[in-house]
# Entry
Amino acid sequence: MTANAQGVSAGRTKAAARGGGVDRASRSRARADGESMNSWKAKLRPYLFIAPLVILSGVFIYYCIGFTVATSFTDWDGISDEMDFIGLKNYAKLLAPGSVFWTALKNNIIFMVVTVVIQAGLGLILAVILKERLPGSNFFKAIFFMPIAMAPVIIAAIFRIIMDPNVGAINEALRFLHLDFLAQSWLGDPKIALYSICAINIFEWMGFSMIIYYAGLMSIPEDIYEAAKIDGCGFWNTLFRITIPNLSGTTNTLILLGIVGSLKTFDIVIQTTGGGPGRSTEFLNTYLYKAGVQQFNGGLSAAIGVMVLIIAVVLSIIQVVVNNRANR
Amino acid sequence: MKRKISTTTIMYVVLFFFLAIWLFPIVTAITKSLQVGGVESYRSVIANPDVHYFRVVFNSLFIALATAVVVVFITSLAGFAFSKMKFIGQNVIYVAMLACMAVPIASVTMPLFFTIKTFGLTNTYLGMIIPLVAFNALQMLLLWRNYFDGIPNELIEAARVDGCSTWRIYLRILMPVSTPMIATTGVLTFVYSWNEYLIPLLLIRDETKYTVTLASTYFMETRSQTPEMVAQEYAALILMTIPSIIVYLISQKWLQSGITAGAVKS
# Structure
């Protein structure tokens, strides 16, 4: 039976190859599909190939999202099976003027702008230098990229000790240099704690921007640079007139990934400040975690989750559109 | 010529300046951990009666490896279907899957905890592996689909004419030519799973199931600031990081290609 079906398929392939006006891509896709398009087995096959992923990932995540949306309208405590419908009360509490939610959102946005700009700026500078392939550049690249392989929560822990006002290495170094007035309670002062967290994040993720810019630089054709050289373009002129404009697609991707990354930030904050002092470093995720896990307010926690999900899904869609456009 | 040399000097100055900043935390951690009592701090971390160092490393290794194997398998299968087959609902399902790519695990904290608890999977490896697979698979699906889109259809057609079934085409033709992609997605998933903190934080109470990320916070809980305790904290953090650095040294190339493949396609 199989042999027969294959014979049919081979004949069809030839016939299709002869046929003119049909769209080439869709034709070969259809052919790759199986022996006989009519058999229900062949029709079912693609679904069998995607089933493990759809069940393990899609169903799981969508179930969690549905659960979050449903419980956001209740007074669930996060542990018991009991919950009562309370309408939009959680959202009203969340969105009331001056609520913690707005503080957390503001912190998320400040964090996002500071880290995205500095990571992209430093990453670009280092990528441009590394592209010159100076002796030893692979070593530098490896060191700058290494934090990505290390757990954010462990890096944050190291910085928590380093930034400690008493035993921390930063203040020790400043005192050693007689710059005592610069010594700070880096994570304990509400005015600077958020920026200290930004610094830790930049340490962790700068290599990410660097490596992406590096790949982007490699894709700029060399003859553009040669032409610029012949025209007498200097280093800075080349950088601002050729390199940066040619990398605009890469920059857009990095901004998008930076926004997504800031929305996912949790480990560094919970390890260093836990959102404090006060609410000065509260992020959406730490607020959500504390409301649900520590304060047994599952409903409110879910409502924060819904707000985060709305932002996340919009960002994902933009990401897919950008990816498709780049792939075309 | 003279100008050329001065530019090179400036470049090295910049590189060494940032190198100093990037090495500062690691060098500080190493020197401080050895300052009081030398290797004694390391010995006392390894000898901790509640959280066994090698046990913790094994837990993380097992979870990250299992997650990577499952993710590579299911996303390469699905990537193949989405790229080379045609079926009803194809685009809708694909977009519906990728729409979750930016969903932070933290945003579904409560359902995650509650669901795993309902199935009785708290304090188990499986309880951690399932959410890790779910949340890592989406980005890898995107990578696999893009990768298969770049493989010529002729390769599959030729195999089809030779009488290969779809499953054989996947296993015998596509997988052997995809080893770089298997390595890339495997390493990326491994590293992301190894570094995950929130999932074990929510689901694990039993110290014998601690991962390195959870163990690192366990050793940070002593708020005492005696030089001995600080040295021991640094020692614990370094011990927890050593496996990551070994993995990084082995797999640097794949990690870099995974990260660039996910971001630049132009």
